[in-house]
Amino acid sequence: MTTDTTGAQLADTLRWSRDLSVSVTTLTALPLRPSAGPVRRSAVLGYAPAVGIGLAAACAGVAQAGRWLFPHNAAVSAVLTIAVLALLTRGLHLDGLADTVDGFGAFRDRDRALAIMKQSDIGAFGVVALVLVLLTDVAVTAWNIEANRVWCVAVAIAASRLSMTLCGLRAIPPARAEGLGATVAGSVSLPVAAGWKLLLLLVAALPWAFGHSSPAIRGLAAVAVAAVAGQLLCRLAVRRFGGITGDVLGAVAEVSLAAGLVTTVIR
Fold it and tell me: How many Cα atoms within 13 Å fall on the side-chain side of residue 142?
């Protein structure tokens, strides 16, 4: 192996590490320090599914621990699981959900709706959306924990971050000239998005290899439905606001998670 080849491999490794750390610090509460060097615009959403897999593993661990500690009360385990997810993401995606719904609910022009989304307070529409989504997440997570299907919860969490990546496809514009939306809009290529989706579908199907078809089918359905739900919300945001914002990305993650989770309990 030549020195040039070794140097190129090291550069690729450092770039991968730097991009992943940027995505982690943007989408979670983990205070990682990105490696020195230029940050690629595609880093945040391009590695969002990897961040989602990490969040899914952490929440699955909490859910499984809850099954052991509270064997007769799956609701407690579910609340702890969803609470940990909110803590790991600093509640930013929930805040984005509330702001986005307030923007949709404001029967004003586009600029006024965007201004409402930037305000720090939460309106009635946002509160209702938060309550409904969190109740849905907890109820469905409790059902899966009780049915010993923690795997389905983990897959839905990972799939919700894939939905964020799909919002970064090059055909989707930003709603503002500044902010996170402007930074990440159009930063994800179709092959990258397709590659992540294929990987998550393969991961979701893993239980099939061990003779467990039900969680595999439910997981595959969760990935598909979460992606569709996220894209529908993204398209609505483009129509209403003219593009995506950081709040819209958070809303996409939360709506996709709820949709994916609900899919796992359909008989």
Answer: 16
For residue 212, give both structure tokens. 């467990």
* Three-point CA angle 80, 72, 155, nearest 5°: 45
Question: Are the beta carbons of 254 and 96 closer than 8 angstroms?
Answer: yes
| Blockwise average pLDDT, block size 10, the chain, 267 residues | 49 64 86 60 84 96 94 94 96 95 85 88 92 97 95 97 95 91 91 96 94 93 97 96 95 98 92
Residue written as token pair 């958070």? 250
Which DSSP string corresponds to 159-189?
A: HHHHHHHHTTBTT--BSSSSSHHHHHTT-B-
The rounded Cα 52 to chain-centroid distance in angstroms is 6
Structure-token match 């997810």, residue found: 85
| Per-residue pLDDT at 29 | 85
Show the tokens assigned to 5. 């080849």
How many of the other CB atoms lie within 10 Å of CB of 183? 17
Is pTM beyond 0.85 here? yes
Q: What is the CA radius of gyration of the chain?
A: 19
User: At 119, is the secondary structure helix, strand, or coil?
Assistant: coil
Q: Per the structure block, which two tokens stand in for 240?
A: 């209403």
User: Phi and psi at residue 111, in whole multiples of 5°?
Assistant: -65, -40
